[in-house]
Specification:
This protein is an alpha/beta fold. The chain has 10 helices and 11 strands.
């Protein structure tokens, strides 16, 4: 299969219903499911290279998180938060009904994976006393059996957040696709070396043509929830994420760009210390975040997932 299927699942937020799009590769009857979740301003099509590679082994499902890509925008941008995304992924899993579940999460997608994986592990341990969100939504024994956290951990460097926040809410428009590609090359330089075709592919699904101009695919309201993260909220969120991460009871691969400013070397080492099932792979010449397009990156993830 060279192109994925597009489908939608209806999810709920306190502000109403919204549809979440997801791209699906491989046999739809395969109950071995790999869910791949993208970063803050990206889409599920970021995983095309990895999905093509693994679609013979898995039903690979790559959602566009709410507010991005083909998914609906939320009526209230204040709900662009990890708890809402976890709720949406729970709805997706109820649709997919996997017997085996593996997870690849880049940046924000890794935060969602940690929170969801910790909740699933708690549900499996505690049964009817587990997290209320999951109590009746998914099978009692469902768990994430292998997890890849791509350049993210429970602690996020505040300066890196500030760098990302500088462009999230900026409304930009370009008269040509080539100019959009140049913009992506500039703001995403930390992705590391890519050829011209790869930069075009990294741009194709994050800009859309509208009224003769190329504009960002996502709801600029994402910046509202981003700006609401004051130091106290970040500290509380970090504590919850460490708790979820330490509760993960599956093999974990932490991948890190060797020059990443979001996942620092100290945090990566702390992740290895706090969960003995974690291992670390680093990619030189790359910042935040590895795109999982280069052969060494794809092979590292593939070998880990296949065990």
């Amino acid at each position: 299969m060279t192109q994925p299927r597009l489908d939608f699942v209806t999810c709920a937020s306190p502000a109403g219903l919204h549809r979440m799009a997801y791209w699906e590769w491989g046999d739809p009857g395969n109950d071995r499911v790999l869910v791949c979740v993208h970063g803050l301003t990206r889409t599920g099509r970021d995983f095309d290279v990895l999905a093509r590679r693994l679609s013979g082994d898995y039903r690979v499902v790559c959602p566009d998180v709410a507010g991005r890509g083909r998914s609906d925008w939320l009526a209230n941008p204040a709900f662009y938060t990890v708890p809402q995304y976890v709720a949406d992924m729970t709805t997706l899993l109820a649709r997919l009904r996997p017997a085996v579940l593996h997870w690849v999460g880049t940046s924000m997608g890794g935060l969602i994976g940690m929170a969801l994986g910790g909740a699933l592990a708690a549900k499996a341990r505690e049964g009817d006393n587990g997290p209320a969100l999951l109590r009746h939504a998914v099978r009692g024994d469902l768990r994430i059996e292998r997890m890849v956290l791509n350049d993210v951990g429970p602690r996020i460097d505040p300066q890196a957040l500030g760098r990302i926040g500088m462009y999230v809410g900026q409304p930009v428009a370009f008269p040509s696709f080539e100019q959009a590609v140049q913009y992506v090359r500039t703001v995403s330089a930390a992705f590391g070396p890519h050829d011209d075709a790869q930069w075009a592919e990294l741009t194709r699904h994050v800009f859309r043509e509208q009224g003769g101009m190329w504009v960002k695919h996502y709801d600029l309201g994402l910046a509202m929830a981003f700006a609401m993260q004051d130091p106290a909220a970040l500290a509380a969120g970090e504590q919850l994420l460490w708790q979820a991460y330490q509760g993960l009871d599956c093999p974990i691969l932490v991948t890190r760009g060797g020059e990443s400013d979001l996942l620092t070397p100290a945090t990566a080492q702390e992740m290895l210390a706090r969960n003995p099932r974690a291992r670390l792979a680093q990619f030189p010449g790359v910042g935040h975040a590895p795109t999982l397009m280069a052969e060494d990156q794809v092979r590292t993830v593939e070998e880990f997932l296949r065990g």
